[in-house]
Amino acid sequence: MTSFMVFTYYDWRNTLQPCGYSRNREQTRPRGPETPGCFIVMELGFFFPSTWMGKAKELKGMLLLLFIATFIFLLSLNMRKHMTYKAFPKPLSASKMCSLQISEQTLTPLNNTKHILVSAYMDQRVKGLDIRIIGIFKMDSDQPLYCLFCCAGQLSNATPTTILKHNENFGFPFITTDVMCGIPKGFSATHVTLLTQPHSVTIPNQTWLPIRNQKTGREEEQKLQFNFTVCISNLFGDYNNVLQFAQTLEMYRLLGVDRVVIYNTSCGPELDRLLQSYSQEGFVEMVPWPIHRYLNPSKGWLFSQSGGDVHYFGQLITLNECIYRSMKHSRYVLLNDIDEIIMPYKHNNLMSLMDMLQKQQPNTGVFLIENHIFPKHHFEPSGRFHLPQWSDVPGVNILEHIYKEDPDRSIYHPHKMIVQPRLVEQTSVHEVIKNFGKQFKVPMDVCRIIHVRVALRGSLKFEQLREDKRLWDFQEKLIPNVDKVLKRAGLLGSEGRS
User: Fold this and answer.
1) 71 dihedral zone (left: phi>0; alpha: psi -120 to 50; beta)
2) CA-CA distance, 145 to 159, in Å (whole number)?
3) Membrane-crossing residues (predicted)?
4) Residue 401 in contact with residue 451, Cβ under 8 Å?
5) Which of 109, 110, 131 is nearest to 324 (CA)?
6) I want to staple 465 with a disulfide (CB 3.0 to 4.6 A). Which of 149, 194, 398, 403 is the partner?
7) pLDDT given at position 82
8) Is the pTM of this model over 0.85?
9) How far apart are CA 220 and CA 218, in angstroms?
């Protein structure tokens, strides 16, 4: 005996009423217009023996329950998916992630402005502000800017900025500028960029600056890698004073300097070889400074005399940048030119000098050192330091120049500085503009600058110069050390010492 088995299904939009079908397949149709949502999932026809009828009914019920359970599960997933998208925004598309356009340059033009960005640092010394972006801004180009932060590809809300133009630019149209802003509460930023509109959508070529000097939670003193860093700015043109440079750096090494930072636009070929050697050793950090690609930098210090866009190839910018670059790593920073040596006269090293000065002048962050000129056309008469191995090395031999000018204190006389970088906010060349501690002028008999160069007071007669042989106190170690670095760079003649 055979039987035709029909499965019945339910219309879920009509309180699960059965969608009845006739046994006659040709007359099969929905129950009527009152069940518009009825769906016929399948129709199966089988011939079963009568002994299978009970099992067929049982299977029919199980399939019905399975269908209903599956439908409810899929419906709940669909509802949950829409609830999730309401609660959390869709992830940013790849074109909006900051990690794709991180600046690896020291100079980064800011989109839709005439400004150039240099670097960004964590700086929470000013209440309510977290980030200091160092830049080069056009003086007459004022517009509001907004900080946008990034962490792991996620963007913050834009925050307003405080724009602080330094008050010294020597008349040039571009000026050192600090852009300060706060990080939104609860956002851990790793990169920052500047926008000209508060609600701008970041474009694919938006460039991000890494935020340096991030806090690590350790004690500040434990983070200081160096005691003394010398900041030298800027090398440009065909400057090739190799011998004086080597003598200066080796003299600083004997005095306890750990690191020298140099901003390099260009220099002569022999000096470049020496710099590369020092850089490979780790004593010198070379910072590329291609400012000529973006501006017309001046070779002079005063706009009315030399013209151009920015003072001395951006000297003011590099001095400030070097302070922040060293802030987390160095106890003290020396700010001086490449042909200057800040020399202690009552101590044999800089640490002994600073220990004494800090005890005498607590809470002082800026120590002003008087500049003394040693005219390079006056030579020590015996010629004892006119060494044959240095005869083919380009540059000035500072050991041969022991006569100095007395400063004319009736007019402005410039100083250079030893600073605690964490107590400095803004600096100029010869003085600090903003700082958090005191300033102190160090007496010349305690410390002064040895500066071998062209005469400043050219009208002085030889008899009016004073003898100063302080460098000779270090000659036994200085000369072989200079020989060593020149030989390593392939610049020492065949008569050089082994």
Assistant:
1) alpha
2) 9
3) 59-77
4) no
5) 131
6) 403
7) 35
8) no
9) 6
d(CA 308, CA 269): 26
Nearest to 133 by CA among 157, 98, 91, 164: 164
**Worst-scoring range by mean pLDDT, 32-41, 79-88, 440-449, 484-493?**
79-88
| Phi, psi of 442, deg, nearest 5 | -75, 130
Instruction: Average the pLDDT over 21-38 and give the result.
Output: 41
Position 283 confidence tier, pLDDT thresholds 50, 70, 90? very high
User: Residue ranges per domain, the chain?
Assistant: 10-83, 97-212, 220-488
Beta strands (DSSP E) in 278-328 are 284-288
Structure tokens at 3: 């039987």
Q: How far apart are CA 485 and CA 482, in angstroms?
A: 5
Least Cα distance to 156 among 103, 101, 96, 100 occurs for 96
User: Token pair for residue 158?
Assistant: 């834009």
Using one digit for the tens of pLDDT, what is the confidence trace for 418-428?
A: 999 999 999 99
Name the pLDDT band for 215 (thresholds 50, 70, 90). Answer: confident
